[in-house]
Amino acid sequence: MRLMLSLLVLLVAWLPSAADEKATAGLSSLESRWHGCVRDVYDRERSSQSKAASQLSALDACKEHEDAYVAAILEAQAAEEKAARREGRTLTARAKAWAASVLGYVVDPVSSWLDAVTH
């Protein structure tokens, strides 16, 4: 029973949270808006300018979208780093702690039972 509970807790810890999914959706939305803006401006100006000039003009025209996208990426990275610092333990350390707790529930009772039987 405790093993199943431990596995359930481990599974829940590994699943992405709703906030992570929302942040990912927000980033992809900002990225698609920026890319759409660049494509639209580039398509409009491609016939009147050289390719390089059209590309630079499209990037300049969509600077607001790019800035919003980059700011959101940096904010998401800062939030991930903060969560990692708050957690303080690596995945390996958490796995070792979990294995130690499982061993405590299995090995200790069995070894004490074997000691009682042999003595």
From TrEMBL:
Organism: Methylobacterium durans
Lineage per the UniProt record: Bacteria, Pseudomonadati, Pseudomonadota, Alphaproteobacteria, Hyphomicrobiales
Source domain of life: Bacteria
Signal peptide: 1-18
Record's protein name: Lysozyme inhibitor LprI N-terminal domain-containing protein
This protein's UniProt keywords: Signal
